[in-house]
Design goal:
Low-confidence stretches of chain A: none
Strand content of chain B: 5-15%
Strand order of the largest sheet of chain B: 10-11-12-9-8-13-14
CATH class of the largest domain in chain B: Mainly Alpha
Number of strands of chain A: 4
Shape of chain A: globular
Mean pLDDT of chain B: 94
Number of helices of chain B: 29
Number of helices of chain A: 3
CATH topology of chain A: Transcription Regulator spoIIAA
Number of domains of chain B: 4
CATH class of chain A: Alpha Beta
Low-confidence stretches of chain B: 868-880
CATH superfamily of the largest domain in chain B: Dehydroquinate synthase-like - alpha domain
Largest sheet of chain B: 7 strands, parallel
Oligomer: heterodimer
Structural class of chain B: alpha/beta
Distance between the termini of chain B: 53 Å
Largest sheet of chain A: 4 strands, parallel
CATH architecture of chain A: 2-Layer Sandwich
Radius of gyration of chain A: 12 Å
Largest interface: A-B, 16 and 13 residues
Chain lengths: 91, 880
């Protein structure tokens, strides 16, 4: 992981909004942004939609998005939504 | 991408893709929900459905112009309240069922995105029902309603969706196609993100669902036969049939179509129907209805009549009926194209048939059943259990409704305890995947978490074993009126029979049956049986080697159970607890079997085995059952003191092989190990002495005990590949069993101690332990060695030294068998050895090529036994 990676905490209570905010910060990120999901217990459809947008934007801007601390339930939801391959994961 | 895109515009495809995308996201999110989460959502959905039951019914009537408002409202209530009553306490998330005694846990996995086709006949009730099932099981549903019922369905979906999302369901969990078309359905049914197609509707929709290449729940039309039998409560039957057939103007596909009545009650029943508002058609009217309502091309009822009132149908067809006629009844004389009204009629027209006998009635019901009703629903009214049973036997229907209305009965939960549903599985007869009333469990992938279980093992031995010199004295304590001593001529000649005779209880009539000391055949057994019957024996004393004792075991079996089929009982098996053959437990007579062994090897005096040579088929049949074990074993060394050296060596090695194979068997247990290890210790110590000093009573005694103790071990742990090889080789080249075992033994130890090419499936053991067991034996014998490999090598060496001391030939070649002859034999030998059940408990599963290699190792001889991997397994790899 580059030392200049942007590190953003995702608030479990407002995950969709926090991911949208991360999307806005993509431009200022270096080559990599780390989203810390360790306090997120569950994602809703809004959060998944936001993540899909984030993945798309990151692809356009050639920014690597790393999800840290994703629990297995969310990981499975990302797999089912076909979003998992678009992110890197870090425990 | 589906293959019918051409018929859909880009905009429509984008619309459909949007529905799938929403549903996929919802389904993904839904996987995170708990049981409590879904239960919290389902209840308010049910209440919302109940609250809107009449409103939705009115919408359905308005849009479809089918059915009866009140009945549709009732259906909406059943689809919510009754279904809720069934599902509310059901676990559908996470662990849903546990079977601790079987080590099994069932875990629910949602299906994902379901595309659900709903019918015109029950549009809103079906939607309500499927929404509840979907939420309860954490699935997302895209509804594809009938094109003539999509508005009312959309409203039903909206009501359910709002209630669900308000209480926490993921957005997008339900969607409903607007202005649905067949190409829409085809597109969605084949969409890669749709996991299941659930089609409730007509034949076309169901067929399309099953043709989509997706897992499908397709449930379609029926043709319900009813047998109204003469013992039935006729008043109840008539009311039930009218209630059912007129319910929602007959739109439920489980409703009655043809009522077959016994001749004796036919006229009375028609009067009752007429009294309660049915119009009984005359032959002309019946013919007219047939022409008007059934399409002669397709042989199916015309859609125009579906769900219409009886009076309206009569009017359209030009029939004059009373104003409040509920039901039209058309007598028919048969089933099939010539009798158009024998088909399914989803409107209040009932066919009736007059049967001259129960047999005829059942046959006509079968005909109706086969005329489009296979797998669906059938009804019988009777008080005769035999008639009900027979009806259930001959009719192919997922629901056989007894003494209650067909349509309402089939829905479940009202007239019976069937699962409430709005989707009737019709099984393969109806081209469906299930005969069930479709329910929540069909909306789940049920995973089984199966823990490793250990089958209960056993340790079974005769309950009386007498040993050491003069143990034969114990014969006195067994009272007998008539005893048959089964023995061989030599033993009679050298006085052993007299020794036995003198020890039998006083007043025992004794008869001696001498048989050759060869593997028993049918004739020997038959001769013995004749003697047992002639002398009305109550006791057999088997005095001899393995063959004599085996013969006595089979005589006892046939004497006590004359019907026992030896060929069947000797059939091969994999696991004695699961084998096909059943040994008889009922005995025509009883006889005690006392076995006195005169060799120190087979241990037949305590084993549950007996070998029978079938001369006619030229094969050996091995009988295995604990009921064959002798009742009493006498292990008295006085009977082996005169054994010749060669026999001492061969039988002694047989004993050692039993113990070594039982020791490393996958059925080995602490019980069998204790015996196997002791027998190995005794054999290594005393066999050379008994061989070199035949008069050494201590050595003879210990070897006699060792043979019995080894047999106690292998009676329960069985043997292994050594015996499989020896059986094949011994039979082909006429080599004594013990000697054949000896030629294989060092090679088999080395083979079993190596890392297996194939492990033997073995729930009884925690790891591969054979090499460690051999090392333990080496320690027990004080053979030295530091590593497991060294210890195994020292055991192989010690075994070879023992064989040398016993003057056992060093190789198969030393027997005078030429290499060419052996080369010709080996392929067959390997196959025969592979078919031998002995290796089923070997620690290593042999490959045919490995069996051939073992034969060649034995051919080349001792001193060459090598483990396949020089160091055997790493110690840490397979330690238990």
């Amino acid at each position: 992981m580059p030392i200049n990676a942007m590190w953003l905490h995702i608030d479990g209570e407002r995950a969709a909004q926090a991911i949208e905010e991360a999307l806005e910060k993509l431009d200022s990120a270096g080559g990599e942004v780390v989203l810390d999901f360790s306090s997120v217990r569950r994602v809703d459809p809004g959060a998944l939609r936001a993540m899909e947008k984030l993945a798309g934007a990151a692809g356009d801007k050639v920014v690597k998005v790393v999800l840290r601390g994703v629990n297995v339930d969310i990981y499975k939801a990302l797999k089912l939504a076909k979003l998992a391959p678009r992110f890197a994961f870090l425990d | 991408m589906p293959d019918n895109v051409a018929s859909l515009g880009e905009e429509r495809i984008a619309y459909l893709e949007g529905l799938v995308s929403q549903a996929r996201t919802a389904a993904a999110v839904f996987t995170q929900y708990t049981q409590e989460d879904v239960d919290r959502i389902v209840k308010p959905m049910v209440l919302a459905g109940m609250a809107h039951a009449q409103h939705l019914a009115a919408l359905a009537i308005e849009e479809t112009r089918l059915g009866v408002l009140e009945d549709k409202a009732l259906k909406n209530m059943v689809a919510t309240e009754f279904v809720y009553d069934y599902v509310k306490d059901k676990r559908t998330v996470g662990v849903i069922r546990e079977f601790p005694e079987r080590g099994l846990v069932e875990v629910a996995e949602p299906i994902g995105v379901i595309f659900s086709i709903t019918p015109i006949t029950n549009p809103t009730a079906t939607v309500l029902f499927k929404c509840i099932m979907a939420i309860k099981t954490r699935n997302a549903v895209i509804f594809g309603p009938h094109p003539l019922a999509w508005r009312c369905c959309q409203e039903a979906v909206k009501i359910m969706y709002e209630a669900a999302v308000k209480h926490g369901a993921p957005e997008g969990v339900f969607t409903c196609l607007e202005s649905p078309t067949v190409p829409d359905n085809n597109y969605l049914m084949r969409h890669k993100d749709v996991a299941l197609v659930d089609a409730t509707g007509g034949r076309g929709a169901v067929k399309a669902a099953y043709s989509s290449g997706k897992p499908a729940l397709g449930v379609g039309p029926g043709n319900t036969p009813v047998y109204l039998e003469k013992t039935a409560d006729l008043d109840m039957a008539v009311v039930d049939i009218i209630t059912s057939k007129t319910f929602d103007n007959g739109t439920i596909c489980a409703s009655e179509q043809t009522v077959v009545m016994d001749d004796e009650i036919y006229d009375r029943v028609l009067e009752k129907f007429a009294d309660l508002g049915a119009h009984i058609c005359n032959p002309k009217e019946t013919a007219l209805l047939g022409r008007m309502l059934v399409d002669p091309e397709t042989g199916m009822a015309r859609p125009m009549a579906i769900g219409q009132k009886a009076t309206d149908i009569a009017r359209v067809c030009g029939l004059s009926v009373k104003p409040h006629t509920k039901l039209l009844i058309a007598p028919i004389q048969g089933v099939g194209r010539e009798h158009p009204l024998s088909v399914e009629k989803l409107f209040p027209l009932l066919s009736v048939y007059r049967a001259k006998s129960v047999d005829e009635a059942l046959k006509v019901c079968v005909d109706v059943n086969h005329a489009g009703g296979l797998g669906h629903t059938a009804v019988v009214f009777s008080r005769n259990d035999e008639v009900i049973r027979k009806f259930g036997d001959v009719i192919n229907a997922g629901r056989i409704i007894v003494n209650s209305p067909g349509s309402i009965g089939a829905l479940g939960g009202i007239y019976n305890d069937m699962v409430p549903t709005f989707s009737f599985g019709c099984g393969t007869g109806g081209g469906n995947s299930t005969t069930d009333n479709v329910n929540v469990y069909h909306y789940l992938n049920i995973k089984r978490v199966a823990r490793r279980t250990q089958m209960p093992m056993w340790y079974r031995v005769p309950n009386q074993i007498y040993f050491n010199r003069n143990a034969v004295e114990y014969l006195r304590q067994f009272p007998s009126r008539s005893t048959i001593v089964v023995t061989n001529p030599l033993l009679e000649q050298i006085g052993h029979v007299d020794v036995v005779r003198r020890r039998l209880a006083p007043q025992t009539r004794v008869h001696v049956l001498t048989i050759p000391e060869v593997e028993p055949n049918i004739k020997i057994v038959t001769d013995g049986l004749e003697a047992l019957h002639l002398y009305k024996a109550d006791q057999i004393v088997a005095l001899g080697g393995g063959s004599v004792i085996d013969a006595a075991k089979i005589m006892k079996l046939k004497y006590e159970s004359p019907e026992a089929d030896l060929e069947e009982l000797g059939a091969p098996f994999l696991d004695i607890r699961k084998r096909v053959a059943e040994y008889p437990t009922e005995k025509a007579s009883r006889v005690r079997l006392i076995a006195i062994s005169t060799t120190s090897g087979t241990g037949s005096e305590v084993t549950p085995f007996a070998v029978l040579f079938d001369k006619e088929r030229g094969i050996k049949v091995t009988l295995v059952d604990y009921s064959l074990s002798p009742d009493v074993a006498i292990v008295d060394p006085q009977f082996v003191m005169s054994m010749p050296k060669g026999l001492t060596a061969d039988t002694g090695i047989d004993c050692l092989t039993h113990a070594l194979e039982a020791g490393v068997s996958v059925y080995a247990s602490p019980y069998t190990d204790s015996h196997a290890m002791q027998a190995i210790r005794l054999a290594f110590r005393y066999l050379p002495i008994a061989y070199e000093h035949p008069g050494d009573e201590e050595a003879r005694t210990m070897m006699h005990n060792a043979a019995c103790i080894a047999a106690l071990a292998f009676s329960n742990a069985s043997v292994g590949v050594n015996h499989a090889l020896a059986h094949a080789f011994g039979a082909r080249f006429g080599v004594a069993h013990g000697r054949a075992n000896a030629l294989m033994l060092p090679h088999v130890i080395a083979y079993n101690a190596s890392v297996p090419t194939k492990f033997m499936p073995s729930p009884h053991q925690r790891a591969y332990t054979a090499h460690k067991k051999y090392a333990m034996i080496a320690d027990l014998l004080g053979l030295g060695g530091h590593t497991i490999a060294e210890k195994v090598a020292s055991l192989v060496a010690a075994t070879e030294q023992l064989l040398d001391r016993l003057a056992i030939p060093r190789s198969i070649a030393d027997l005078g068998i030429s290499k060419e002859e052996f080369e010709r034999a080996v392929p067959d030998l390997a196959k025969i050895a592979f078919d031998d059940p002995s290796w089923r408990t070997n620690p290593r599963m042999p490959l045919l090529s490995e069996l051939a290699d073992l034969f060649w190792s034995a051919y080349r001889g001792r001193g060459l036994a090598k483990m396949a991997d020089a160091s055997t397994a790493p110690e840490g790899l397979v330690c238990q």
